[in-house]
Sequence to fold (154 residues):
Amino acid sequence: MLKKICCAAFLAIGVSMYVGCDSKDDTTPSTPDAPKASAEGAGSAASATGGAVKDAASSASEKAGEMTAAAKEKAGEMKDQASAAANNAMEEGKKKLDEVMTYIKDNKLDLAEKSLDGLEKIKSSLPEAIQSKLGEARTMLNAAKAKAGAGLPG
Fold:
């Protein structure tokens, strides 16, 4: 649509320039007002086309504003979802880590080992605070295993 309007504007301007720049010959047409009428018609066509171009530009500007607002809203929603997912991962990781620590304290070392292995497999997706505590939990589990192994009769 905008392309058609622009083409019409250029055509109208070209016609008005052609008619306006027409050289005068010694032979005058029988109706001397004919070029003047054509120039006035082309000028009014150019004015109408210019108005249409302005309307199209205004409409495009409004659409761009609407699209920008929609994009900002969607970005805000995505940010909220990412934040919720990070909080969920933090809570889930903390819950599993607490479970590992409880197993170690209760001397359920096989369950602690299994849970800790599961956490270590997804370590990269866990928050930094949980990742740093995994090493501490591993050290505690190894110490508990060594203590349990030393107490076995041989």
